[in-house]
Amino acid sequence: MKKNITVATALLSCLFVSACVTVQVQPQVNKNQLAISSVRDIPISYSPGSQFSLAPKYVEETSLKAEQTQTIYKLYADAIIADLNSHGFKNTDDASHSAFYVGFGVALASDLSDETINDKFGVTPGLPSNDELKKGSFLIYIEDARTGKKVWRGAAQGFAHEDSSEAERIQRTVAIVSRVMKQFYMTN
User: Fold this and answer.
1) Which of 35, 69, 31 minimizes the C-alpha distance to 163?
2) What distance in Å separates the CA atoms of residue 86 and residue 70, rounded to the nearest whole number?
3) How far is CA 106 from the centre of its chain?
């Protein structure tokens, strides 16, 4: 009888332990996920009406064709100008009349790693990579024209929407720029 109880207990223990299997669940990745961070470097503010000029920065080697890169940069340049204009700032092509410069860059993670962004730019949102999606970064900074010092830096990371229509890409670009620049306006 004692042997039967021991065998039954051992059998139940084995069944219970085998039922406790841990399954690792991969974190769900949303294609529309966006990570944003920024930092204020020096306390210089600009009043509405201040003039700015764009200073785009390009990755030296890119996996994109030159035509693709130009299209993407034009989308972001247009969105940046529109966003700053809507907040009272004025765009000028004459950099000598600018109160500040707006530097920006756009790159895929395959062309510009998080480590490089952190080392050279100092701000990384930290969006985790995903093997099924192409991660990209939008970097932007405000540089004071008089002192030549960076006033503010912002970065956004998300996943490329390669299958989007032109109208959807414009809308997404405007939304990304607006969300990043919102952090600049809060500290200006």
Assistant:
1) 31
2) 24
3) 9
**Is the backbone of residue 49 left (phi > 0), alpha (psi -120 to 50) or beta?**
left
- Give residue-wise pLDDT tens across range 114-133: 999 999 999 989 899 888 89
Query: Checking phi first, is residue 124 left (phi over 0); if not, alpha (psi -120 to 50) or beta?
Result: beta
Euclidean distance between CA atoms 140 and 102, whole angstroms? 7
Alpha-carbon distance 23 to 173, whole Å? 38
User: Rounded CA gap, 155 and 104, in Å?
Assistant: 9
Q: What is the pLDDT of residues 44-100, one digit of tens each?
A: 999 999 999 999 999 888 888 889 999 999 999 999 999 999 999 999 999 999 999
Which burial class, exposed, middle or buried, applies to 112 when counting CB atoms under 10 A from its CB (0-12, 13-18, 19+)?
buried
Residue 40: left (phi > 0), alpha (psi -120 to 50), or beta? beta
Kindly calculate the radius of gyration of the chain based on its CA atoms and give it in whole angstroms: 25
